Amino acid sequence: MATILITGANRGIGLSMARLAAQRGDTVIATARVPQQAQALAELAEDTGRVIIRALDVTDEASVAAFAEATTEAVDLLVLNAGVLNAYGGLDDPAHTAEAWREVLMTNVAGPFLVARAMLPHVDRSKGKKIAIVSSVMGSSERAPGNAYPYRTSKAAAVNLARNLAAELEPRGIAVGAYHPGWVRTDMGGGGADIAPEESAGGLLGRFDALSMATTGVFEDYRGQEIPF
Ligand SMILES: NC(=O)c1ccc[n+]([C@@H]2O[C@H](COP(=O)([O-])OP(=O)(O)OC[C@H]3O[C@@H](n4cnc5c(N)ncnc54)[C@H](OP(=O)(O)O)[C@@H]3O)[C@@H](O)[C@H]2O)c1
Description:
Layout: E1 3-6, H1 12-23, E2 27-32, H2 39-48, E3 51-55, H3 61-70, E4 77-80, H4 98-124, E5 130-134, H5 149-169, E6 175-180, H6 197-210, E7 219-221
Helix pairs in contact: 1-2, 1-6, 3-4, 4-5
This protein binds NADP nicotinamide-adenine-dinucleotide phosphate.
């Protein structure tokens, strides 16, 4: 059984991945910005005995450093899932403020970078040696309709980050992939989205299982369908 670390695991797709992974027997290190408020995670930890809850804000270097320090486990699979979407419109959308850009780029791009770098020693000494970045089809430059600028560009950058990490970490035998979870009924995806978090999470865990040095650098969805960059 593997040890899986999931960022942003207190709700949404992250919580569903934590639940499915714990139920299949993996040990899950589940992060939340405010563990004291992570009720669903606490119940999952109580029910399964396989979930370790730790504090992590991916945009805060001190938080990332303290988290890496607190981690003693070898991490077979690092899932960089935490993300934000705070503005949807075109150029006229007043929500595209400098602060909105800062929040999205720090959370969706710098966050995965900072956590991957800090956790690398723990991934390096594991058997699994895998890193998965949860991006989005909205980051595909081939499918760019002209809206949600901060989010779309951040998710394009997240794929680019995965591709660069895949290249740099190849000699160390660490496989890295970028993934689209589908359009999922979470706080971010909304109630009208296509699929339930459990379906997305199950598909994603299957794709992470399939990730290998032969497929490192992949960008695909939760069903294994390749996505154009
Ligand atoms: N839902 C979709 O349809 C969809 C589609 C494509 C891609 N995605 C991607 O899938 C991932 C998960 O999305 P979701 O739908 O599950 O979103 P969600 O329900 O909004 O949950 C987002 C998670 O990220 C955490 N987070 C946000 N900022 C953070 C920070 N600075 N540090 C640590 N954790 C932080 C949140 O923690 P708090 O509770 O503390 O805010 C929460 O646990 C995201 O990367 C998203 O972009 C989602």
